[in-house]
Amino acid sequence: MSINKQGNAFIYTKDDGCKGGEITFKPQGDNIIVADHTYVDQPLRGRGIAGKLLNALVEYARSENLKIKAQCSYVATAFARDDRYQDVNADA
Questions:
Q1: Could you tell me if 4 and 10 are in contact, meaning their C-beta atoms sit under 8 angstroms apart?
Q2: b/e for 13-37, b at 16 or more Cβ within 10 A?
Q3: What is the spatial distance between Cα 86 and Cα 17, in angstroms, rounded to a whole number?
Q4: Rounded to whole angstroms, how far apart are CA atoms 44 and 34?
Q5: 83-89 long-range contacts, CB within 8 A, separation 24+
Q6: Strands annotated E in 29-66
Q7: Burial (Cβ within 10 Å: 0-12, 13-18, ≥19) of residue 71
């Protein structure tokens, strides 16, 4: 299992090399990215993969001094429930 940035996405790759999930984003103005989609394949759900994808995006935003606008419902819910994301939440 690995998570790697590919373009405007972080991709979860299974041990067999196949894609198992992704979180995508798009730039929006100065220092803001919009998290617009999170997906994990059905058989892999419930294993914390979406959270790992979000954490990869958050670490990227922190390293690039970016804020994240949550358009994706998964990211919006995570931002509302967990204060550790507030430093990158564009709407905080």
A1: yes
A2: beeeeeebbbbbbeeeeeeebbbbb
A3: 33
A4: 25
A5: 85/58, 87/62, 88/58, 88/61, 88/62
A6: 32-40
A7: middle
Tell me the pLDDT tens digit for each residue of 21-72: 999 999 998 899 999 999 999 999 999 999 999 999 999 999 999 999 999 9
| Gap between the Cα atoms of 3 and 65, Å rounded | 20
If you write DSSP's letter for every residue of 71-88 in order, what string do you get? -SHHHHHHHHH-GGGTTT
Strands (E), 1-92: 2-5, 9-13, 19-27, 32-40, 67-70
User: Which residue type sits at 87?
Assistant: D
Separation CA 67–CA 70 (nearest Å): 10
**Model confidence pTM above 0.70:** yes
Query: Do residues 74 and 40 lie in contact, with contact meaning Cβ atoms separated by under 8 Å?
Result: no
Q: Does the CA dihedral 51-59-23-5 come out positive or negative?
A: negative
